[in-house]
Amino acid sequence: MTSFVFEPTRRDLLAGGAALAGLAAAGLGASAAQAQGTSLAMPQLDSAVADDIAAAFAGGATPIMEGLELDLPALGDNPAAVPVRVHVTEPITEASWCEELILIADLNPLPLACRFTFTPDAGSADVAVRLRLIGTMPIRALARMNDGRVLVARQEITVAAGGCGL
Amino acid sequence: MARPPRIWISNDTPALGEIVRVRAQIVHVMESGFRMDANGDPIPPNLLTGFTATLDDRLLMEWLPETAISQNPYIEFTFAARASGTLRMVWTDESGVVAEAGQEIAVG
Lengths: 166, 108
Description:
The complex is a heterodimer.
Chain A: H1 10-36, H2 48-58, E1 68-71, E2 75-76, E3 82-88, E4 98-105, E5 112-118, E6 126-131, E7 137-145, E8 150-159
Parallel strand pairs in A: 2-8
Antiparallel strand pairs in A: 1-3, 3-6, 4-5, 4-7, 7-8
Chain B: E1 6-9, E2 19-25, E3 48-55, E4 58-65, E5 74-80, E6 85-93, E7 96-105
Antiparallel strand pairs in B: 1-2, 2-5, 3-4, 3-6, 6-7
């Protein structure tokens, strides 16, 4: 009478190990999905939507890369409130003023961050707000002057973690 | 209007033509619409949608915030002091006016 003793071969062990690893990966995947489940915010894959917004704002005019200054930190340590200042550097007079200004956060789920409109009575175009950003991305500002010129400024910002779920 | 806006103004007795800088912040949840509650249902958005600054009856600037604006929105702007008057700031969201503030500006 021979007793059957299961002696696992190296192949069995490897197969079992792979199965276990598969289970662990599935578990991790589930928890990652759960973590994502608290927020519907998904970053844009590229700047295509932002480009469309910028083109619609420019309305055919070729944006000029000067005259507008965008001031933001190189590293956004708090992604839920990144200070951004944008101002038209040329003098604002009653003959030449900034009509409208937009801020675009390229990779945010909704890239258009905000819009400003000015009247000649303001005599200035200098604003600052705080943005929440989902990750590292370029920020751009576009300004339309009353003579039809469109000014643009662009700057990259590094953000540690997303602030869009907040 | 739970808490009044916090306002800072560089100079409320500016010289004629002086650039006056205004900083203002209100308390607002700025619910993005991306968050989910404990049951996994999306929380409806509740965003600030408008801000206007007027000097007496003349509009200076308007701000239209979107989802990317932080909670408790902060706004900073400047204007040229060309006349005395009351600088009036109004914040609105979908439910209507959420905050108002006024400041006398006396051009000296």
